[in-house]
Amino acid sequence: PSHSSLKDEL
Amino acid sequence: MNIFRLAGDMTHLMSVLVLLLKIHTIKSCAGISLKTQELYALVFAARYLDIFTHYYSLYNTVMKLIFLGSSFSILWYMKRHKVVRRSYDKDQDTFRHHFLVLPCLVLALLINEKFTFKEVMWTFSIYLEAVAILPQLVLLQRTRNVDNLTGQYVFLLGAYRGLYIINWIYRYFAEPTYSTHWITWISGLLQTLLYADFFYYYINSVKNNVRLQLPA
Question: Which of B22, B125, B133, B137 could staple B149 via S-S, CB 3.0–4.6 A?
Fold first, then answer.
């Protein structure tokens, strides 16, 4: 996706 | 992944290990709020729904399994273990945490980035984590005398949140594709502020080498 997401965080 | 994020995850891991160590070695959960532990288990269950559908990295998956496993095993110890559950002080741990769950769910339905089941559940877990420590902080105020391991547990939880905020600041400046995440930022900031007064008393008690006494 264009904008980063915080789903890679815990 | 930046050093602040890694330090935050390691601090978070330390907090659950300190708690498991306390409960497993001295077979006691005195001073620990079961309500907070139930809320944390719910936070992880709602947040890690994508654990089997979206693979980010081995680290990410392993840490999710550790947090899920540790939070549910803490629940098992406090509710099922014949020795540990006797040390749970349910008369003191009276915070009506159900009143926290529903508003967070409603808020997640109203304010979210995408109205899909997984996104709403993820947002719900963000809001719920912000308030999950409240029963524990109330219990600490009530029991006044805070034993070392419990104090360390809460301190490490607060430190993990603080490191995550630094991680977001770092990512904002370091990653060009990084955009605004107001929901997570505001919720995370409010959560960290809840620890502020605890930090003040905890650091003072460590500095003056006295038992941690929280004001009534």
Answer: B22
Q: Where are the alpha helices (DSSP H) in chain B?
A: 3-26, 34-47, 58-79, 98-110, 117-131, 134-143, 148-174, 182-194, 196-207
Summarize pLDDT for B78-132 with one digit per residue, the tens.
999 999 999 999 999 999 999 999 999 999 999 999 999 999 999 999 999 999 9
ipTM of the complex: 0.84
Each residue of B140-152: pLDDT tens digit? Answer: 988 877 888 899 9
CB B161, CB B4: distance < 8 Å: no
- Identify the contact set of chain A against chain B, taking CB-CB distances under 8 A: 2-4, 6-10
